[in-house]
Design a protein that fits this description.
heterodimer, A: about 425 residues, 4 domains, 14 helices, 6 strands, B: about 260 residues, five-stranded mixed β-sheet
Chain lengths: ~425, ~260
């Protein structure tokens, strides 16, 4: 009944008085008539004398604003409901044809991942320690082969018998053929590592770096270097000794030039093998003490191997800021911690930096009356902002702004190349 | 003319003032890379030499603030290396072998052929060699991996005992000061660097007494680290005797007598 009466009202009045009311103009006689009618319907005074909303008490601008907000609010609500319904309708429409669903990426069975939840059981569920082939490929008991078929087939029977050349076989086998069981070397150096090594330098230095003895002159450090090796003389070393076995137990001089970085050697400067030191790349250095008895032992792989967040390419070229520094240069042979001052406090390899401060270099390379290598290059930048520091660095590093430590050692204020006029 | 606070210009000015105030209240970054260069020397008879490969710790706070901790370190019972290994049933040959190169454990020095065979062979090593040969099927491997067949208390029991004491003290110190205890080992010349230090007062300690001949040395000193210290000046010299430029003298005590 009420709605019918309201409809009648809209039909009975034209738009202009309505607009005048909305805009808060002074009501004319027709408007007053309309207001009267509205009051009679009870549409404007909801609860006379008690309720706050009484449009008749509002005046001018305020009244217009109130009405405007009410109308806009209503329109907004209607629009929201309409939009919601449309969206639901669209959803319903989308759900119908099943072909529209995005495809789930297929599992690449040629790439075994230790990160897969089902592959994170105890290591000896799959890996045997030592493997049956260790005597053929190693001089010591080791995990020297991939796990047997039974480690995979219990879950991956379907993939094992899929097609003539199942892709899953290529994880371990260099040739996928039922008549060829050839496998990659374990571990396959061509595949990025899924693990990082947790190695507490501080603890190892405590126990193995207590003594310094010199290698005999004809000693050529073998690949397997443990704390118990033959060929050492029993004489204590003095400060002139060329070899120190404290760090060289694991970090012997490199015998081969490292692989070039993916972008090639900067300036085509290929550092020779003696530029760098080696780092253990097998269990040889570890198992001599950690095979059994001394934790973490061979059955606790996770004691050293921590699953990495991303794949690690172990064959990458050493990351060096001063590529022209050669460890093997006679004047550079010193106690390792003379330059690598932070190593003895490091308890992990994660985030380990060689940390050689400039002061280690400037003891000789920026000394009054001896050499002024750092100061000279800083002065060259003063004259030419594009000067490339080349005494220690290749151009990828040498064209950067020298760090403040370099300026500090030269007794100068640090400047930026861009500020050089 | 009336000025309203809602004026856009006024709002902008207020915002700028607020930004400036916030920037002023941000702590100014402390200069990183403060370094303490430590030089440890010991005098035995008339000879002075650098004390190589000994670990030192830097505990936040003054000696007064760490008094309880220091008192505890000084009162802690100390068992010398010889006493420990005798108590563990080691032969005199093994004890001498360890003493020769100031070793805390059998891991610290290389094995010579004479150590496992011949008249000077060490009995414990011979037993481990025999077991290793049986297990690994190779005399060479048995020698390289000799420690894997030594009993635990002879292998590194003494070192582990020290570590237990050190770790306990570090935990206590960190709880007391709320800061991480730093540690470094001296190089062959007795030099060590503490890097990335915050300026302030620290207690330098070796936590566990260092054996030197028939005595034990205990260092507990106060070190003041200044801002912008890059260790260009003279090192912080510590010794077992009071001499010129020595900033920290060890408390030297005779080694305890072994219990039977």
């Amino acid at each position: 009944m009420f709605s019918l009466q309201r409809s009648e009202m809209f039909i009975a009045t034209n738009a202009s008085p309505m607009l005048s009311l909305l805009l808060g103009a002074k009501p004319d006689s027709r408007t007053l008539v309309m207001k009267k009618r509205l009051r009679s319907y009870g549409a404007l005074r909801l609860d006379k004398g008690r309720q706050a909303i009484n449009i008749s008490l509002l005046r001018g601008e305020a009244r217009g604003l109130f009405v405007l907000l009410t109308v806009f609010g209503s329109v907004a609500c209607l629009a929201a409901v309409s939009f919601h319904n449309t969206a639901l309708a669209q959803k319903r429409r989308v759900r119908k044809p099943s072909v529209q669903r995005p495809a789930v990426p297929a599992i690449d069975y040629s790439r075994f991942s230790h990160a897969t939840k089902k592959h994170q059981g105890a290591c000896n569920t799959c890996h045997k320690v030592p493997t049956a082939n260790w005597k053929k490929v190693r001089e010591y008991p080791d995990v020297a082969d991939f796990p047997g078929h039974d480690a995979c087939v219990s879950c991956h029977r379907q993939q094992f018998f899929k097609g003539a050349k199942p892709v899953i076989c290529s994880d371990c086998h260099s040739k996928v053929s039922p008549r060829d069981d050839a496998r990659f070397a374990f571990r396959n150096p061509a595949v990025p590592s899924q693990f990082l090594i947790e190695f507490p330098h501080d603890k190892h230095q405590d126990v193995i770096a207590r003594i310094f003895r010199r290698l005999s002159v004809d000693e050529n450090p073998p690949f397997v270097r443990t704390s118990f090796t033959s060929g050492f003389t029993s004489a204590n070393a003095d400060d002139k000794t060329k070899h120190y076995n404290n760090c060289e137990i694991c970090h012997s001089p490199r015998s081969t030039t490292p692989a070039a970085p993916p972008t090639g050697w900067p300036d085509s400067f290929v550092p020779d093998a003696a530029t760098f030191k080696d780092a253990p790349a097998s269990h040889a250095s570890c198992f001599s003490c950690h095979w059994k008895s001394q934790p973490p032992t061979n059955d606790n792989c996770a004691g050293c191997h921590k699953l990495a967040d991303k794949l690690v390419m172990t064959t990458a070229a050493p990351n060096r800021l001063s590529r022209k520094f050669r460890h093997a240069r006679e004047q550079h042979v010193a106690e390792c911690t003379t330059c690598h001052i932070n190593i003895t406090k490091s308890s992990t390899l994660r985030g380990l930096k060689p940390d050689v401060p400039i002061t280690a270099c400037t003891e000789c390379h920026n000394k009054d009356g001896l050499r002024q290598d750092v100061s000279k290059e800083l002065e060259a930048i003063d004259r030419n902002r594009d000067f490339v520091c080349a005494y220690c660095h290749t151009s990828d590093v040498g064209r950067r702004d020298p760090p403040s430590s370099h300026y500090l050692i030269a007794g100068r204020e640090a400047i930026k190349r861009k500020d050089v006029k | 003319m009336r000025t309203s606070l809602l004026n856009p210009t006024a709002i902008l000015v207020l915002l700028l003032i607020a930004c400036f105030c916030v920037a002023q209240t941000q702590p100014t970054p402390q200069s990183a890379g403060t370094v303490l260069r430590l030089r440890v020397r010991v005098k035995v008879g008339d000879t002075t030499r650098g004390l190589s490969r000994k670990r030192f710790f830097l505990i936040k706070g003054s000696l007064e603030q760490n008094k309880t901790l220091v008192d505890e370190m000084l009162q802690r019972p100390f068992i010398s290396r010889d006493c420990y290994y005798r108590g563990a049933g080691a032969s005199e040959r093994l004890i001498n072998w360890l003493r020769e190169n100031d070793c805390e454990s059998v891991y610290c020095r290389e094995l010579q052929p004479g150590d496992v065979e011949g008249p000077e062979a060490i009995p414990e090593f011979q037993t481990a060699m025999t077991a290793g040969e049986k297990e690994y099927g190779s005399r060479e491997l048995a020698r390289k991996w000799l420690t894997t067949n030594l009993p635990e208390k002879l292998r590194d029991g003494f070192y582990k005992g020290h570590q237990f004491g050190i770790e306990g003290t570090i935990k206590q110190a960190e709880a007391l000061s709320g800061a991480k205890v730093l540690s470094v080992m001296t190089d062959r010349n007795g030099t060590a660097y503490f890097t990335d230090l915050e300026p302030g007062t620290y207690t330098l300690s070796n936590i566990i007494p260092t054996e030197l001949g028939a005595t034990s040395l205990m260092w507990n000193c106060e070190v003041k680290v200044k801002q912008d210290d890059r260790a260009f000046e003279k090192p912080f010299l510590i010794m077992n005797r009071q001499e010129k430029n020595v900033k920290c003298v060890a408390l030297e005590r005779p080694l305890p007598v072994c219990e039977k």
